[in-house]
Specification:
This protein is of the alpha/beta class. About 50% of the residues lie in helices and about 20% in strands. It is built from 7 helices and 6 strands. The termini are far apart.
Length: about 220
């Protein structure tokens, strides 16, 4: 097929535009904050289990997965959001923090559910680890706004912000990192709430909005 000079010029301009657009898209992606969501447990480690046999590992993965969907659809993808696991797989703790280090994450949130011998124990806990003054300050702020959202929007009891010597926090270099215990699967009302898909979507939305506030988005 023979092309006229005008057709060749148009083709060349299209190629130039495509390359510029592709490069610009890459640059835009690089500017987005990097957030790692770590759904706890997985695989042969179920975590806490409700009396109905629902596993913590499945609840936290469902919430994390909903955060990815909400970020991409409802909010038009403002974050580069990664999960430490996307399936029912057990990931070593060192590999969870390695992902955050490799990607140079701005924020790291490990999501869990709690359990206790006392079946009346209820509420959410947020843990941080003191690595540096700057990280402790950023992590504290993130933890507090996540908790406030869970309390104000969802009515979840606040058990406070605490210091925890967890490996995923201790070995983490993210600007802000927290471990979130959403509630007790050994408490009947919280177990029902956390197992509900609509509740999981609401929790995912609250955590995302806290991240946006933290990052000024």
């Amino acid at each position: 097929m023979m092309y006229t000079l005008n057709q060749i010029i148009v083709l060349l301009l299209c190629l130039v535009f495509f390359n510029i657009s592709y490069s610009q898209n890459e640059k835009d992606q690089e500017k987005k904050p990097i957030v790692i969501i770590d759904p706890g447990h997985g695989g042969k480690d179920p975590g806490a289990i409700t009396t109905q046999g629902i596993n913590e590992k499945d609840i936290v993965l469902a919430i994390a997965s909903k955060m990815v969907v909400l970020n991409d659809t409802l909010f038009d993808n403002p974050l580069r959001l990664f999960l430490t696991r996307y399936t029912d797989t057990l990931i070593a703790l060192r590999d969870r923090t390695l992902l955050a280090k490799t990607l140079k994450a701005d924020i790291f949130i490990s999501i869990h559910c709690n359990q206790a011998i006392n079946t009346t124990a209820a509420g959410t806990d947020v843990f941080i680890y003191l690595k540096s003054e700057a990280q402790a300050s950023a992590s504290t702020y993130l933890g507090l706004i996540v908790q406030k959202g869970l309390i104000d929007v969802l009515g979840i009891k606040n058990r406070g912000l605490k210091y925890g010597n967890f490996q995923v926090l201790r070995d983490n270099d993210s600007n802000a990192s927290i471990l979130l215990e959403l509630g007790f699967l050994t408490q009947s009302d919280e177990a029902i709430y956390l197992s509900n898909e609509e509740s999981q979507s609401a929790i995912a939305l609250v955590i995302l909005q806290a991240i946006f506030k933290m990052l000024g988005l």
